[in-house]
Amino acid sequence: MVDMALKTKREMELVVLIKGGGEMASAVAHKLARSGFRVCLTELPSPQAIHRGTSFCEAVYEVEKEVEGVVAKLISSPEGVFRVWKEGKVPIIVDPDAAIKDSLSPDILVDAIMAKRNTGTKITDARLVIGLGPGFKVGTDAHLVVETNNSENLGKVLTTGEAESNTGVPLAISGLTFERVLRSPDDGEFRQVKKMGDLVKRGSLIARVNHQPVTAQISGVIRALLRDRVKVEPGTKLGELDPRGDPQLCHTIRPRARTIAGGVLEAIMMYLSPSIHKFDDVFIQTSAELSRCPRD
After folding, report:
1. Which of 25, 92, 154, 163 could bridge across to 20 with cysteines, CB 3.0–4.6 Å?
2. What CA–CA distances, in Å, run from 97 to 103, 120, 181?
3. CATH code given to domain 178-250
4. Is the pLDDT of residue 270 over 70?
5. DSSP reduced 3-state for 241
6. What does the pLDDT average to over 24-30?
């Protein structure tokens, strides 16, 4: 049993900056916010998440987005971060370069963009830098890496090496993988015919891209679907079907995302351990050192 006396208030108010506001980033933000950390998200001006029911990046369009009881709120400048924290919400800012880190000085930075490559994160961006999935090497790009591949190592905290390469195989549900995924047949404007949460039969028309039909290969619920009128390219992932047919699944964090978020929390708690950790040649500072960091 954890001795709560070992956890200072300052430790539980550590600032975590998360790059990305899509499904995986949102699951991480949700878990860390519920665990008492002060979390801030960065996003692109026009995010294109398909799992919109569980992605905080929807706040870029709607100002606020709730995911399982946690609310993210869009801010226009770094000054809004502390105001939103006081409201008990998670601030999210349009900031493709994550420039807010210079003024926010996060204790922990999590790259959850899930680009399968490092798009600019440096190991010096925070005292603890965590990378999700392929593209990050421990000791070079990040202090720790969390496995995101659908394998036996899903959610594992890596203290050496790199994450597994992406297989490109969708998560199997009821034995179905590629059949569940909706992809663009052409380039052009994506136009919805059905909505996320709708129940459809195999062969149902779900959307059109440049007047070409996008149809369901299986029966089920439209669990994920791109926002209407988004420009797409051939092969772009447009959505997912779930054969279990439960519309509530659209607003439920998926087990894979929850497992990855648990890996991030584990990585942070490893960092906050009372003893000094040394993962190969990567030095991780102790919680005592962090507690000396002044906060507003």
Report:
1. 25
2. 13, 8, 30
3. 2.40.50.100
4. yes
5. strand
6. 98
Candidates 266, 271, 256; CA nearest to 26 is 256
pLDDT tens sequence across 79-114: 999 999 999 999 999 999 999 999 999 999 999 999
Please state which CATH class domain 4-167+254-290 belongs to.
Answer: alpha beta
Segments making up each domain of the chain, as ranges: 4-167+254-290, 178-250
Residue 54 corresponds to which tokens in the numbers above? 């569980």
C-alpha dihedral over 189, 18, 142, 154, to 10 degrees? -70
139-147, Cβ contacts within 8 angstroms, sequence gap of 24 or more: 139/279, 139/280, 139/281, 139/282, 142/111, 143/271, 143/279, 143/282, 143/284, 144/267, 144/270, 144/271, 144/279, 144/284, 146/260, 146/263, 146/264, 146/267, 147/263
Query: Between vectors from CA 258 to CA 77 and to CA 230, what angle results, nearest 5°?
Result: 55
What pLDDT does residue 169 have?
Answer: 60
Q: Is pLDDT at 264 greater than 90 in this prediction?
A: yes
Q: What is the pTM of this model?
A: 0.88
* Residue of 151, 161, 180, 164 lying closest to 241 (CA atoms): 180
